[in-house]
Design brief:
The complex is a heterotrimer. By secondary structure, chain B is an alpha+beta fold. Chain B is 34% helix and 26% strand. In chain B, a hairpin with a 6-residue loop joins strand 13 and strand 14. Classes of the chains: A alpha+beta, B alpha+beta, C alpha+beta.
């Protein structure tokens, strides 16, 4: 009997069922990639470029090769020429995204891997790296958006003509020109969001096992999606995908960084294949912060046109995003930022343009809510507009918010909201934070020289993104001969508690105890195809698949039971695994009894019935986006002496439809909120103007701690979705989307009376002090 | 992130340590708690042919009240300093500053001698030592000597010790009378190195007049700063008559080489230092008032 | 080769390994003794994922060489639950309070909380946050972890 038994009963969805994952994770028996050990396993280490850009004038690896314990040394010349196609499943085909396994001829960001050493231990591999003679003649790097866009800027990738990676051109719109020309108020601001990193607690890692005799590859990897890795490696190595097995064990967080393989991981797999021996590489934290992909460096200029009463009549926006040198697939959300920008407000007209640019810095990955610049800018803009026009920021939101009577509502960018509760979440957050009382408190505090501020982050979250490879998820569910349930899912859960939530969904649908359902994922040998876990999709799409497959099985169970009990299917009910005719306790049978018959005795089954109790479903939601919504409210205090910011209170009003497990929802929100607090106040992946990364250890890259995140207060609203039978909506990214604007707005509000507003992040104490000093002068 | 190779030595006797240091010279480094050294070695920012583990040397792990001093062995771990009854009663400024060192896991291994010998500009203990005019008992195979705190810290991560010398013990003078202590620091997060901080100890008469004061700042420049100007500003005055903010400004005004980097300007650091001195003063004053 | 023999008690059992002088205690535990529950999150002493108990004190095992642990009593996450699998009060509280998601930082937190409650059996909110600030978590926002300390302290007080 497991020491961790969940409560028994018939209804599990909606309950705070404690996690199945905990039994192994609390006792140190998780299986993360660095825990994988195979006989004869070798270890890799990389020599990386110290320069942001330059040509490699000398590369001599002989001393490294000769070091006892070194088994192989690989350079760009060894690997790049034998790279197959390097597009990922999500891209659907080659997209011209720059990619190489190792630097060759030149280096394009500080931290780019140049040489891979494989040795009997990581210690020796690092010793060998020190023996490599690498000379680089540095060239002036392209660092920052302005440098990338400058007229005569050198292309980061010589094979390109410019540094423009992607463009969303503005569409001519005479109506919006008219709106701006006749508006009572026009407010224009430019906002800069700094660069930061995903920083999962577990760095990336891969164990690659190539079997030359069988021509088969087995890869253990810390990833967000095993199938994506399989498809990608199959093409890169030109090995049939049914001879590539990818195993995803426990993964210590991803947040987007582990959605797709990055060059160094590919180099390790290639080296393993060339050597014919198993090779493990575990990214260290310095590599993770320097080369493991960055995120969020954006600049957006917006103009709001408003009428006399502060109602938004039109918005113009232009975004520039820095995608570094080798961006990961899907990392530039520049189009989506414009699509989602109108968010929770009635904005009749929108004109939008954007560019993504290459720089000589670490490439960009999608990071939890990668389009969030839309909320970061829009919500700051609401406060800026409120200040300029002289309306209270909550009141301004109330005047512009999409109210329920307008649903279904189609935004200026074509997004259709049907089951949202935007205005209700704004009101709930305002009530929970005690907005009016706070304004009184703020006034009193100011008289005492204390700076308190309040900020909102109101947004809609595009969840359950169902397009391309992300359109569906699948479940393969079987009831064994002893009546226990196994669900094998297409997911890549890396902290989302899917082993528990899916068990809840399946248990409810089948009428069994949640402890009688086990959920597994992540091995391409058994799991159905999945695009990887991200995009706030699991509650919507994965649950949908689980519901659908469980429903099929339930129907089959009831068919057999009806036959056995000589009753009508519609009269039967299942409770805790026991099947009875509604209204009586006898006759009855059990799921175990039905299962035994199904596997052993065809004569006990209805005529024509298939033996066994196994079924599969693949689910696609009825819309490409399932909208959830939330409002964050934050109260902070700014210390005028130091510029230090303390977050005093934090409130989240969340509508993610029907909630499977409130603990899981709240936990996901909390993690996202911490990332927003950290992102605004502490985290920064900065470069100097020579392209040297400045924050490559945890001494310099500051993550929020337990002392930095207050107790978060939650309000739940449940407006079920109609895109999936469970009525679920995704929300996994939302915590990270609403929090940066709420925190920035709170800081801005604390000092607004001094006549200054921040336009840049991060809001380090020094930056806040500089604002205060600016106000004083 | 794995360190490069070295030969490991461990001795139970200080004499063996000094002999080895003399013999091995620059290739050797002492390993006490390792909380500053090992991260550097893991990142290969530091490498040594020889590490000499001094964590088991009993002579370095004693705490004694000797007349009007408390003598603390250099090898005493911060977690022990934190909970020692003699230090808590007789060197209250050290008792107050020790919990601010990093996190408690660091304090489980890090030593007071290690912190002092490492001489980080943002560290608390060097400032406390300077404030209280501690003296450092230093030994080598050539003999032993005493270095005053005011002479000990000479530059960024640099002390007056010679490469072949080992810090054996630190001696803190014990003040008598009605005392107040206060420590305040500002860091990005709890446990991070301070941007600036201050340690204040005062002796106050029955009628709340400052009889004696010791004021130091840390994080401001390469070495801890003893603020004589702040001390003369408060000594001889009534507690209530000291304006903390003014004291803070005064205390930082005469620091000549305030550190700066791309994140923290000298003027910002000076302002934070002033605020921390003001706060440390307030805490010391409140502490003194609580004592009869 | 700079190798030496290190003898320790690990989770109550005497263990002996022969390792290079430079081999960290964390690597020795994970690779030479197969105790992979102790995780490496940074290898420079900040994240706390590698926290273990050495002679009863919470320490960062990435900042110790195995050689330094010679003769010491070491407890890792694998040694926390009872031999029959019964979770410790700290582990049970973490489970009850939804104190983990991906689980990578969890062993370090369990060890740190276990040590904290020995030092402060009934810590207040401020003490809890201060003592937990040496362990980083990216998933939970610390909510469940902080709650777990309170629950474990209360459970301890009752028993």
């Amino acid at each position: 009997m497991s020491p961790l038994e969940a409560p028994s009963g018939n209804r599990f969805v909606g309950q705070r069922v404690q996690r199945r994952e905990d039994a192994r994770l609390l006792t140190g028996r998780g299986r993360f990639v660095d825990d994988v050990v195979v006989p004869g396993m070798l270890h890799g280490a990389f020599l990386r470029s110290d320069f942001a850009s330059g040509s490699i004038t000398r590369l001599d690896v002989e001393a490294a090769r000769a070091l006892p314990g070194v088994v192989g040394v690989f350079t760009g010349a060894d690997l790049n020429a034998i790279l197959g196609e390097t597009w990922v499943d999500y891209e659907g085909g080659p997209r011209g995204r720059p990619f190489r396994a190792l630097a060759e001829g030149d280096v394009r960001f500080a931290g780019e891997a140049v040489v891979l050493v494989v040795a009997s231990s990581r210690y020796i591999a690092e010793d060998a790296c020190e023996l490599i003679e690498l000379d680089i003649t540095a060239t002036a790097p392209i660092v920052g958006l302005d440098a990338a866009l400058a007229e005569d800027a050198r292309p980061v990738h010589p094979e390109h003509r410019s540094n423009i990676a992607e463009t969303v051109p503005a569409i001519e719109n005479p109506e919006i020109d008219r709106v701006f020309a006749t508006a009572a108020h026009v407010v224009t601001r430019t906002f800069d969001q700094h660069r930061y990193a995903c920083v999962p607690m577990e760095c990336r890692g891969v164990v690659s096992i190539w079997n030359p005799a069988l021509g088969e590859l087995e890869v253990h990897i810390s990833t967000q999606g095993a199938h994506g890795v399989r498809g990608f490696l199959s093409r890169v190595l030109d090995v049939p995908e049914n001879r590539v097995r990818v195993v995803m064990g426990d993964v210590g967080g991803g947040f987007g960084q582990k959605m797709f393989m990055l060059p160094d991981e590919v180099a390790v797999v290639m080296a393993g294949k060339l050597l014919g021996q198993p090779v493990k590489w575990i990214e260290d934290r310095r590599e993770n912060l320097m080369s493991g992909q960055h995120a969020r460096e954006d600049r957006m200029t917006v103009s709001f046109a408003l009428d006399e009463d502060g109602r938004i009549r039109g918005v113009r926006g232009d975004l520039v995003a820095d995608v570094g040198s080798f961006p990961a697939a899907g990392s530039s959300s520049i189009k989506f930022v414009g699509t989602v920008f109108p968010g929770p407000y009635r904005i009749p007209h929108m004109q939008y343009s954007a560019q993504a640019v290459y720089t000589n810095t670490c490439g960009r990955s999608a990071y939890r809510g990668p389009w969030l610049m839309e909320s970061v800018v829009r919500e700051q803009m609401m406060d800026a507009v409120a200040a300029e026009v002289g309306i209270d920021p909550l009141e301004l939101r109330r005047r512009n918010v999409i109210t329920d009577d307008l649903l279904p509502y189609t935004s200026a960018t074509g997004m259709v909201y049907e089951e949202t509760s935007i205005a209700a979440s704004l009101e709930q957050a305002a009530a929970m934070i005690g907005y009016d009382e706070f304004r009184d408190e703020q006034r009193r505090a100011r008289a005492d020289g204390r700076l308190l501020g309040i900020g909102f982050g109101l947004y809609v979250e595009p969840s359950g993104l169902a397009s391309g490879t992300m359109s569906s998820e699948a479940a393969v569910i079987s009831i064994g001969i002893n009546g226990k349930v196994q669900a094998v899912m297409s997911s890549g859960s890396h902290g989302q508690s899917l082993e528990t939530t899916i068990a809840q969904v399946v248990a409810d649908r089948l009428g069994v105890d949640v402890n009688d359902v086990t959920v597994s994922q992540g091995d391409t040998a058994s799991a159905p195809y999945g695009p990887g876990t991200g995009g706030s999709r699991s509650a919507v799409i994965l649950s949908g698949a689980a519901e659908a497959a469980a429903s099929k099985l339930r129907a089959k169970v009831l068919d057999i039971a009806a036959h056995q009990l000589e009753a009508a299917v519609e009269d039967l009910q299942i409770e805790a695994g026991r099947i009875t005719v509604a209204g009586s306790t006898t006759p009855s049978t059990t799921i175990a009894g039905v299962a035994r018959a199904a596997y052993t005795d065809i004569s006990a089954l209805p005529p024509g019935a298939e033996m066994g109790l196994e079924d599969k479903a693949r689910f696609t939601p009825s819309a490409a986006i399932t909208w959830s919504n939330s409002c964050h409210a934050c109260i902070c205090e700014v210390d005028p002496r130091t510029g230090g910011v303390t977050v005093l209170r934090y409130v989240v009003s969340e509508d993610c439809g029907r909630v499977i497990n409130p603990d899981v929802v709240e936990g996901q929100i909390a993690g996202g909120v911490a990332q927003g607090i950290g992102g605004v106040l502490l985290e920064h992946s900065a470069y100097d103007d020579q392209g040297n990364p400045l924050n490559v250890t945890f001494v310099d890259y500051l993550l929020p701690t337990a002392a930095d995140v207050p107790t978060i207060e939650y309000g739940h609203i449940e407006t079920p979705a109609t895109t999936n039978p469970g009525g679920y909506k995704g929300m996994g990214e939302g915590g990270a989307i609403g929090s940066p604007p709420a925190v920035v707005n709170a800081v801005a509000d604390a000092i607004a009376h001094l006549g200054v507003r921040p336009l840049r992040q991060p809001l380090s104490p020094m930056a806040v002090r500089a604002l205060l000093d600016g106000a004083a002068s | 992130m794995k360190p490069s190779s070295f030969t490991y030595h461990r001795f139970d006797d200080l004499a063996d340590v000094t002999e080895a240091l003399t013999r091995l010279g620059d290739d050797a480094k002492l390993l006490a708690g390792g909380q500053s050294l090992v991260p550097m070695m893991n990142m290969r920012l530091a490498r040594f042919e020889h590490l000499i583990d001094i964590a088991r040397i009993d002579e370095l792990r004693t705490i004694e009240r000797r007349q009007d001093h408390v003598v603390i062995g250099a090898g005493v771990r911060h977690c022990v300093v934190e909970r020692d009854a003699v230090i808590e009663s007789d060197v209250r400024l050290l008792h107050a500053s020790t919990p601010l060192i990093g996190h408690f896991q660091i304090r489980s291994r890090g030593t007071i001698g290690g912190s002092l010998a490492h001489a980080d500009p943002a560290a608390e203990q060097p400032a406390v030592a300077v404030a209280l005019d501690a003296s450092f008992d230093v030994v080598s195979s050539r003999g032993s000597r005493t270095i005053a705190a005011s002479d000990f810290f000479v530059g960024l991560w640099e002390t007056a010790m010679n490469p072949d010398e080992v810090l054996r013990a630190v001696s803190f003078p014990v003040w008598s009378g009605r005392l107040g202590v206060g420590v305040a620091e500002f860091a990005r997060r709890h446990g991070d190195f301070a941007i600036a901080g201050s340690a204040v100890q005062i002796e106050v008469s029955e009628n709340d007049e400052v009889v004696r004061s010791a004021i130091a700042l840390f994080g401001m420049s390469a070495t801890p700063h003893r603020s004589r100007s702040a001390e003369s500003h408060v000594t001889g005055h009534q507690l209530a008559n000291v304006d903390a903010i003014e004291l803070g400004r005064l205390g930082v005004a005469d620091i000549v080489d305030v550190s700066q980097d791309s994140n923290v300007s000298a003027s910002y650091r000076r302002d934070v230092g002033a605020a921390m001195l003001a706060e440390a003063w307030r805490r010391a004053a409140a502490d003194a008032k609580r004592r009869i | 080769m700079n190798e030496l023999t290190v003898s320790m008690t690990v989770n109550g059992e005497p263990r002996q390994v022969r390792v290079e002088a430079r081999r960290t205690l964390a690597d020795t535990l994970r690779e030479d003794l197969g105790l992979t529950g102790t995780h490496l999150g940074c290898e420079h002493g900040v994240c706390g994922a590698c926290t273990i108990l050495v002679d009863g004190d919470a320490v960062r095992s990435c900042l110790m060489f195995a050689a330094q642990a010679d003769g010491c009593d070491v407890v890792t996450i694998e040694g926390v639950a009872a031999s029959d699998g019964t979770l410790s009060d700290v582990q049970q509280a973490m489970h009850q309070c939804h104190g983990l998601q991906c689980g990578f930082c969890t062993p370090g937190f369990v060890m740190s909380i276990t040590a904290l409650l020995e030092l402060h059996p009934n810590p207040d909110q401020e003490t809890i946050r201060e003592y937990l600030s040496g362990n980083l978590c990216r998933c939970t926002g610390y909510q469940g972890i902080i709650a777990a300390v309170k629950v474990a302290a209360a459970a301890r007080e009752q028993s």
